[in-house]
Amino acid sequence: MQRSVFFFSLFAALQILVAAQIPPATCQQAAPNQTVLHLPSANVSVPTSPWGLAYVSDGVAFISLGAFVGVLNTSTCTSHLIRTIKLPKYSIHSDGSTDDNGAAELTMSKNRKEVWVSLGPGAIVLDVEKALCGHEDAIIGELITPMFSSATQIVLSIDESYAFISQEYGSNATRGRGGVQVFEVNRERNGTISGIYIGFTELQYAVNGMALSADGKNIYVTSEATLASLMHHKDRGILSVLDVERLKFTPSKALKVSVDAGCEPVRVAVSPDGSSVWVTARASNHLVVFDATKLTTMQHYDAQIATVQVGTSPIGLVFVNGGRQIITADSNRNNFRNATTGLTVVDIDSALSGKQKFARVHTGLFPRSFSLSPDGNTLLVSQFDSNAIQSINLALFSRGQKHHAL
Ligand SMILES: *[C@@H]1O[C@H](CO)[C@@H](O)[C@H](O)[C@H]1NC(C)=O
Ligand SMILES: *[C@@H]1O[C@H](CO)[C@@H](O)[C@H](O)[C@H]1NC(C)=O
Ligand SMILES: *[C@@H]1O[C@H](CO)[C@@H](O)[C@H](O)[C@H]1NC(C)=O
Ligand SMILES: *[C@@H]1O[C@H](CO)[C@@H](O)[C@H](O)[C@H]1NC(C)=O
Ligand SMILES: *[C@@H]1O[C@H](CO)[C@@H](O)[C@H](O)[C@H]1NC(C)=O
Ligand SMILES: *[C@@H]1O[C@H](CO)[C@@H](O)[C@H](O)[C@H]1NC(C)=O
């Protein structure tokens, strides 16, 4: 008996020691310089600041362009804009003023027939075929709740019958806290999509990034700062794990756990094998990596498995090359004079074994979001302040990676 207590205490002490080996990411202004990685790339100019991106096929992608969504022909090396589709404009404030944030991140349905656009009070759904052909009725759904105005990202449940939308600043009733807006999704016989508003999960401040766990049971959500950190004049945020079944019926009770995720965590992605969860901590210039299993157990306090230095103010992140590398969009959105923008390419195995190797690809101003082509050979990057989309050819890089770890 005493013996097992002793071993239990030893085990607990060892766990704390192990946990202490990976200190939480601290805040950092300009990131250290990195070696340059040259990959073939081309730019296409667009009429306004581009944000979300979503490939339909290797030859076509959608992009968010403020009050419009654009259709991009990506079948040649230099992609070009085929057309734009005007989005509804919502008058949401009591004084009649409208929300000007425009379209944020895009989400593609699994069958690639619907594009979900994050916009102000919720989600706009476009029919891909109709949008490609330029039909006037391409907008087939408006899932909105007037009390919200800051939709950033949409995650669909695994069977796509629920939509979860991050509302960065919440509503007039949440005292500045953001959270997740929940809709039940109905696909009508006439091809339209409607939603029943279920409710809201209130989290901490500036809620943006979301990702579904591999088994579809949990949603990971970032909050840039907690109340406690703001009281200490710091923006230290969290990664929260929400229970999907609870989100469907009682969103206010869906929060399972929250863990420290560095300074201003803003986006999250799950590794293709589902085992790890990667967060961009924008004001830490780091990726903060968690063990997906531990996040949902009593050991969540010990779930952080690595922190990886990247460039300045990373936002978007994407797994490439079958999950062997992850690329971050280092936005330098605060325009530190001693920093540059870039795309950091991180080798996953090296990063997780502590032998970090990374290199930076040149890009434009305020790189923000990514979409990887279905064949994995082309990466699109939105350059928000350059009014351009960069198209990077990964084909040779991926082939080279099979022989030489980065
Ligand atoms: C990084 O490189 C840039 C451009 O070469 C240079 O201007 C800057 O001083 C460097 N920063 C650091 C911290 O070394
Ligand atoms: C994209 O451009 C190529 C080359 O100009 C053309 O052959 C193709 O039909 C275009 N695709 C669409 C969907 O417009
Ligand atoms: C919040 O806004 C909604 C919709 O504009 C309004 O009906 C509601 O009364 C407001 N609530 C508060 C607490 O101000
Ligand atoms: C489609 O069906 C739904 C539900 O029956 C209905 O509310 C909607 O008005 C219909 N839309 C069109 C364009 O026919
Ligand atoms: C970079 O510039 C910021 C101000 O923009 C300054 O506070 C910081 O100390 C500088 N960092 C380095 C490494 O030079
Ligand atoms: C794309 O544009 C950025 C700036 O907007 C520039 O730095 C980069 O060199 C351009 N790349 C190509 C291939 O033209």
TrEMBL record:
<dbReference type="InterPro" id="IPR019405">
    <property type="entry name" value="Lactonase_7-beta_prop"/>
</dbReference>
<dbReference type="InterPro" id="IPR015943">
    <property type="entry name" value="WD40/YVTN_repeat-like_dom_sf"/>
</dbReference>
<protein>
    <submittedName>
        <fullName>Cytochrome cd1-nitrite reductase-like protein</fullName>
    </submittedName>
</protein>
<keyword id="KW-0732">Signal</keyword>
<dbReference type="Pfam" id="PF10282">
    <property type="entry name" value="Lactonase"/>
</dbReference>
<feature type="signal peptide">
    <location>
        <begin position="1"/>
        <end position="20"/>
    </location>
</feature>
<dbReference type="InterPro" id="IPR051200">
    <property type="entry name" value="Host-pathogen_enzymatic-act"/>
</dbReference>
